[in-house]
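Bug: token stream looks shifted between consecutive jobs. Job 1:
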Amino acid sequence: MDSPEPSNFNRNMLRTFWKQTAAITRRNGQSFYVASFILGAATRRRAYLVYSICRLVDDATDECLNSQTGSALSERLLDVLFDPKPEAETLQNEVAQDLLPVLRHTLGEWTPPLQKEDSTRFINQAWSALQECGISKDDFCALVSGQRDDESFSRPQNFPEFYQYCFKVAGVVGLMMAQVFAARRTAKIFQSAEHLGIAMQITNILRDVREDASEKNRVYLPLDLCTKHNFDVVQTLRSGATKESENSGLKSAEAALSELARQGVWYYGSALKGVRGIPGWRERLCVKAMTAIYGAILAEVLREPLRVLRHRVVISRSRKISLFLQVLLGRNPLLVAGLAPHRQGPAHFHEREGFFHK
């Protein structure tokens, strides 16, 4: 059989690449995947591209198989992806080999199983796509900085340190998505985009309290917040008593978890204020849908905070689709999620220039 024409071969590789980024998003970011249904094809592809690279960076710490750290692999990957001269084949081949186990993990089942040449093709296609996307290397470098924080983990002592971590791993993703959605480049609009990332990360941290502390030995809840409420996360989990009927002292845990969740509600509200700065109606609806879907998880935490000490809080795919449809019909995302808008600002407020305390 004759080999395919180069143009057809390249088109097939590009098609495979976009299928892979969609699969990565579907497998690892189901809430965003549902919300992305409303986007136009070109914007959706760019969003999946950004999400996939962010996911690979995040997974590299746990899946990197050689002696280097995940952040070192991520830095080398970014060097290749943003190299103006991608003909540096030696570096590209080395990165492709090291990235392969991470890509296999992040992508999940793929037929046929991924080989090193597939990793190389993924990098090449990502390089080409990023040339048209307009996202800077600095944005992704902030994400790697958050990855390094996880590798040499030190618990946030207070809310400013907590916010800084959340910004590195999620706030910056909000800024990148604002660029994908062609949002107006004003301080207020981009602050709202950042706040959506912060709100989602607060939701993630609350949702995963048990898993992070028990399996990863990480407690992200600010120490001063827990001290204020006399809540020791690790000790509470070790005691095995995670219901009020089993431990009357759990009211302190409930108070700490609820306080952080209410700050998350405020950041979701702040994020929605920036929606008007997004020109496309599809992109605006996507942000609203993300607020409703992730906000619904936070609402479950607020409804029964102690649940996060027993298991991960999730909502079903059918409910995510229901939330998406309600937003599509014009309902307020916070009300759809079951969150009453929290009008008072959080105990600590962050501006891009620095931290400001209320």
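Job 2, same session, no restart:
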Amino acid sequence: MTTRNKFSPEVRERAVRMVGEHRADYGSEWAAMTSIAAKIGCTAETLRRWCREEASRRTGPTALVGQDRDRLKLLEREVKELRRANEILRKASAYFAQAELGSVPRHAPGMAARLRPRQMVMAFIDAHAKELGIEPICRELAIAPSSYHEHASRLADPDKRSARARRDDEIKAQIGRVHEASFGLYGTRKVWHQLRREGIKVAKCTAERLMRAMGLAGIRRGKTTITTVSNPKAPCPLDKVNREFRINRPNALWVVDFTYVHTWTGFVYVAFVIDAFARRIVGWKVSRSATAGFVLDALEKANHARRPSASAVEMATLRWVDWFNNHRLFGPIGHISPTEAEANYYAAIDNLDMVA
């Protein structure tokens, strides 16, 4: 036997609406339902069920929409974080690859292009902190934020750095000065000897470490360039000294050599007369032609006072000869300058004469 619902949707809606409108007229919601159900002709339990269904119909979609909105916000936040993490890793990968190639811009004077791993990470955070944020970068690169904040505080206040770091900065300034004064020719060994001559106490390994960090290196002899092809059939000059260039006093043996400088207007040739005792340049000559005459002129200058000309090449050569004779450290004579080697020789002779 089937049952037939004798109450239409309009009656149900009106009964539910009346319960809501007249709830305040009764002591409780159940009392309002009992009174209104008796007037409609249904039981109070039936009216209560109608009210619950109506409430579920009205609030169900709203609650579902709220949950979807929260879930959407969570997903959007996760996507944003993932995109930022990918951007951090992408830029970090490119930055570290450039650091290995030595093409990272220097963010502070004296910072080497090639940095140690920790310094590379700190430099990357310095460069991208405003764009990507400190905390996200530290999280993706697996470094404690406190480590970076300590690094930043030391940059802001150099006095907070370690004594070794402050000492390294002082030595770096001296190394840079000596290397620049040598026209960029000095390597670790001669820079270290020059610092010791100036009374600056520093270990050789420290000089090596700091020069490597600064990206400084001495000039190394490269592949020999052949500029002259000799004729084996032509007669060769006699060897007047039997290849013996170790001399015990100045002015006993001079050797002559010449080279060339490529300029916009062509080649300029420079001849040098060198005293074999201390490798001091005692005469030089600049010419636009490589003839025997300009070599003889260099010998003539070695015997007379030198007069620098207004030529740019002559002026540059004059400055270089002054550095070569008075400042350059030469290994075979004990890492002292040629001028000092000659002065020591004459001083030793004077002391022997005084003793005699």
